[in-house]
Amino acid sequence: MRNFTNDAVFDDTLPIGDGLLEAGYRVPLERLGPAMEDWFRRKGYLKPADRLVVTEVARGENYSS
Q: Is residue 22 part of a domain?
């Protein structure tokens, strides 16, 4: 994620599927969402009305939906 945000705090992240990201416990989710949304907007992946939602999923929970 440093490539997206230029912030070392997001180094403990890993894309694991379409729309899914695994983040270490040291990654502040309250900063991750806005940083990713800003990057997606600058790249044109999100339109002005679109929103990026970051949701924490507990280990063992089904996150496929």
A: yes
